[in-house]
Write a structure and sequence with these properties.
By secondary structure, chain A is an alpha/beta fold. Chain A is 49% helix and 9% strand. Chain A has 19 helices and 10 strands. In chain A, helix 8 packs antiparallel against helix 12 and helix 17 packs antiparallel against helix 18.
């Protein structure tokens, strides 16, 4: 078994890899410091040895909060070109990573096409491929063998996928807890549902838990970063922070320790739908139970009734989660719960998540995060519209919105000639001349 | 002086008004309890005796968080019909209150037209009218007399305006602090800027502070609710929670006590641009310094670089503020900082603020707030799309988004036939038959 090629094993040996140098440069920090963070498992650098052209990205403590965009076909809509188009949109909007969650069409071909055009870390959920193949071949997901699951992971690794979501914590004990307590929305994770169905049918333990070492061996070979999935992710506010969710998290914490021991990079996934007031405690719990492993959250969505605007409900939850210590935000698009996202949705989703991530970075004191806001405020004070546009998160949207009602006064059309900025030209030496 | 007609004086006398009955009914609480809250000043019911057709609305402790939509012409765009159109949009989107912030056109005529079509509480900033008139008449805001300010307030009260923003806390001491400390964005409140310019030119104290009793007398006559404005509202993250802002808040707290003593209903306005991590402390501070008076926040916007999507940055801040105890959210539209909002902006602004308010209501345990989310989750589990649409915050947006990619499987087009909800039909009795 090869055991010395992951970023984690290299960092432990004190070897600063080119990936670490790249990430340290992007984060404006010392490579030595970053190397220590990787060695401790506080930071991961998802970088499959087979992913050509990857610009590495770090995720974890002290770094900027990163944003992931989920892409992928569905059974009913499976055009490769549409996926590549969405990929370009996600990248142009500033996504730090993308996941290919395809379940329709020629899955390996789609994955390879996406990888070939993807300079950022690519993630996937290999069990989708195993399950979809089993349904096509045997008519049911329960026809999937244990080997099918591990072979799918192996294929994804060989192709160059940088991080994989694996729902190792959906154990028989978790399902028993779920059954005894009940839930409003049950299991909403697709991977979790595939595994639960398989386990109940075969009356067996989760193969990804039982044969976790086999999974680790595959990850070691390609330096795949494990993203320990939350199959019991609450899909309703009412189900948040229940025994099933927390039991799974305890198990994930146990597996984080085993992965690190073996030299495999690992992060942990989190909710989900969750009341605003429970988010901080959930982040604290994840950090404690999982030894400070990077935390990757989907949302959290702070209400269940926002469909059509769940990029906003998740921006609220994501900002609060990241400010509390979450490291990686999975975007949610305006189409969540309703439809497969199109390119416009992808753009809105990435932008909303980036606003949340940036607000959190300022709150948690990530180095340099507030500088752009300071420069923007200075440009705003000067009514320097070109500079404001340049500094805005989305210059294109800025220009489009501003052009709706242009005035000659040089101010925006809201205040026009009664612009407070113009009236009080200088907060230091306030003058009334302009009024 | 009439001293017994405000909701506050009535409540103190133990008289449950028809407005209290209406608000208690809407909030599903006992009228007696509401009456006690009004008597203590913890809840205000802005209800000018001259506002015909008003459906009263309560704002404060224990009630649902309310949402205000700012409307109003600017010097460059001043069509009455456009304002009435935006008013209808705001009401249809569910705004609990609106403010007419017009600064262009025939201000009294616009205000009366809006009032005639406004069943929710209407707010205004009377100093805009005094200042705009002074500029038209004397060529400068400094030409405005003290009487001009109070007469404008009196006119607004006589017309039926339910709450007025008055920047009573912009004192000479506050301006001295502002000057000595400096700011990136200075004063961004228009009312605050008008007053500061006037004070500096005339070397006089703020008339609204110095003659606060004259203001109270007007409010008592019509039961205008005071909304003590924050003229030193930070307009940049870098300026948040500075000495000028907090000194103004201390003064507003002093004025809250004086208003209550006289029988005038009063709430307090707050920021503004503010780092996510400072919001809770600011809400706590307002509640402590201002004797628990209802807190009305603009945003807060948690980053300065979101122009074009500041409805999202303010939804993040607003949700956190309201969860921490803020009672009233002023919406921010996607056009903020860039352009006068149009009807589409008004709709997005109201919806984003309502999502924030609702998420906060769940977090702070407002009675009944979580019930709709629970019902939505149950409908989602059953794949009952009609019921989901009915329960969603914006059924129109829900339908439009869902129609983008309809599938025959009955699930949404994102997961299609691999819907986790369908795979695991029932969290209690998980079955694999469908897989």
């Amino acid at each position: 078994m090869v055991t010395n090629i992951t970023q984690l094993t290299q960092a432990r040996a004190g070897n600063i890899t080119s990936e670490m140098v790249g990430v340290a440069c992007a984060e404006e920090m010392e490579a030595e410091l970053l190397c220590r963070e990787v060695a401790e498992g506080m930071v991961v650098i998802p970088a499959n040895v087979n992913h050509r052209g990857l610009i590495p990205c770090g995720i974890g403590r002290g770094l900027c909060t990163k944003v992931n965009a989920n892409l992928g076909t569905s059974a009913d809509f499976c055009e490769v070109d549409a996926e590549l188009n969405k990929l370009q949109t996600a990248l142009a909007a500033g996504a730090d990573a993308v996941m290919d969650l395809s379940t329709g069409g020629d899955l390996p071909a789609i994955r390879r096409a996406v990888l070939a055009h993807c300079p950022v870390p690519l993630g996937s959920v290999p069990i989708y491929e195993a399950a979809v193949t089993a349904i096509a071949t045997h008519g049911a997901v329960v026809g999937m063998s244990e080997d099918d699951i591990f072979e799918a992971i192996e294929r994804h690794g060989r192709d160059g996928v940088d991080f994989v979501t694996v729902h190792c914590g959906v154990t028989r004990r978790v399902l028993a807890l779920l059954k005894s307590q009940g839930r409003v929305a049950g299991i909403v994770s697709r991977g979790g549902a595939f595994l639960a169905a398989w386990m109940l049918h075969h009356e067996k333990e989760n193969p990804l838990y039982e044969h976790f070492d086999r999974l680790l061996a595959i990850c070691l070979e390609y330096d795949i970063t494990l993203s320990l999935g939350d199959g019991l992710r609450p899909g309703s506010l009412a189900d948040a922070t229940d025994r099933a969710q927390i039991e799974e998290l305890v198990t994930l914490g146990e597996l984080v320790a085993r992965a690190r021991k073996t030299g495999v990079q690992v992060m942990v996934e989190g909710p989900g739908h969750m009341p605003l007031g429970e988010i901080e405690a959930n982040v604290m719990l994840q950090k404690k139970l999982c030894g400070g492993a990077p935390f990757y959250v989907l949302g959290p969505l702070v209400t269940d009734i926002g469909a059509g605007r769940d990029h906003i409900t998740s921006a609220i939850g994501g900002a609060v989660a990241a400010a509390a210590g979450a490291d990686f935000l999975c975007y949610v698009t305006p189409s969540e719960h309703l439809s497969l996202p199109d390119s416009a949705d992808v753009r809105e989703g990435v932008m909303a998540a980036r606003l949340a991530a940036h607000a959190a970075d300022i709150a948690k004191g990530v180095r340099g995060a507030a500088a752009r806001d300071m420069a923007m405020s200075a440009a705003r004070k000067k009514l320097d519209w070109e500079e404001q546009q340049r500094l805005s998160l989305d210059p294109e949207c800025f220009a489009k919105t501003r052009s709706k009602h242009l005035t000659e006064s040089g101010a925006c059309s809201m205040c026009g000639r009664y612009c407070a900025m113009k009236m009080v030209e200088n907060g230091l030496g306030i003058t009334a001349e302009r009024c």
